[in-house]
């Protein structure tokens, strides 16, 4: 049986293409412990490309796990068993000249990367290079059987793309609400138009920011984990 996984990737201004979160399924009946990752140094991650866990959780937690039916679904910052695969995939996603970030699906396949359905989106942020941050939701079928992979994608096309669309819409809508809130606060604190002008914004130092902060949702990655697990479980049911 082909392995399926869902990942959310970001093009970090400092580190380039990075996986923010990847959700994988364990074998039926397994505990999924083989997919967990141990505590690891986070020095090589900045705010922009790091997975955020809600405050109150114990230090050292680097994985989320859920059980649906007879499968276990695990979400982590990186995949310990598919690290090279995901690295190849996200480099292709963010280097693809035809990749646009307006919610239009992109599909590519080869023997190294498997079959991938990608939907890109972006968020406005004056603290980012170019005043925007770019992300990709990626559904991957890790298989060299092109025919069966394409059949699975075609049978679940609307389900997967609509599922990605709902998650992306949630992120974008919460981000827009946060932008409006920040704008209101700035207007209340500063009555001088020059201080909020485009000149100063254009010369502002660019700083990394977490996706959960952009959306003002500390539980964002928990929601993504649950949504990814539901999508994968539904696809495995059809595949089985």
Write the layout of secondary structure elements.
Elements (H helix, E strand, L loop, with lengths): L2 E10 L3 E10 L37 E6 L2 E6 L6 H13 L6 E9 L3 E11 L7 E11 L3 H10 L1 H33 L8 H5 L8 H4 L5 H20 L1
Antiparallel strand pairs: 1-2, 1-7, 2-4, 3-4, 5-6, 6-7
Structural account:
The chain has 240 residues and is α+β, with helices and mostly antiparallel strands. A hairpin with a 7-residue loop joins strand 6 (114-124) and strand 7 (132-142). Helix 3 (157-189) runs antiparallel to helix 6 (220-239). Helix content is 35%, strand content 26%. The longest helix has 33 residues, at 157-189. It has one domain. It has helices spanning 83-95, 146-155, 157-189, 198-202, 211-214, 220-239; strands at residues 3-12, 16-25, 63-68, 71-76, 102-110, 114-124, 132-142. Residues 194-203 have low confidence and may be disordered. This is UDENN FLCN/SMCR8-type domain-containing protein. It holds the Pfam family Folliculin. One of its GO terms (molecular function) is GTPase activator activity.
């Amino acid at each position: 049986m082909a392995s399926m996984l869902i990942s959310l990737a970001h093009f970090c201004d400092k580190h380039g293409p990075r996986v923010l979160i990847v959700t994988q399924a364990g074998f039926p009946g397994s505990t999924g412990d083989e997919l967990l990752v141990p505590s690891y140094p986070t020095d090589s991650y900045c705010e922009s490309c790091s997975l955020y866990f809600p405050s109150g959780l114990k230090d050292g937690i680097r994985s989320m796990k859920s059980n649906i039916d007879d499968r276990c679904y695990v979400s982590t910052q990186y995949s310990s068993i598919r690290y090279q695969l995901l690295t190849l995939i996200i480099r292709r996603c963010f280097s693809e000249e035809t990749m646009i970030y307006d919610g239009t699906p992109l599909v590519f396949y080869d023997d190294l990367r498997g079959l991938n359905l990608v939907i890109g989106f972006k968020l406005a942020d004056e603290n980012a290079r170019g005043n925007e941050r770019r992300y990709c939701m990626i559904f991957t079928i890790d298989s060299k059987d092109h025919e069966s992979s394409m059949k699975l994608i075609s049978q679940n096309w609307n389900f997967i793309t609509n599922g990605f669309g709902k998650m992306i819409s949630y992120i974008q809508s919460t981000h827009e609400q946060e932008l409006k809130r920040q704008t209101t606060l700035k207007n209340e604190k500063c009555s001088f138009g020059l201080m909020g002008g485009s000149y100063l914004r254009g010369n502002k130092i660019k700083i990394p920011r977490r996706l959960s902060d952009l959306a003002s949702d500390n539980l964002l990655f928990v929601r993504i984990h649950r949504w990814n697990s539901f999508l994968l479980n539904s696809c495995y049911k059809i595949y089985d």
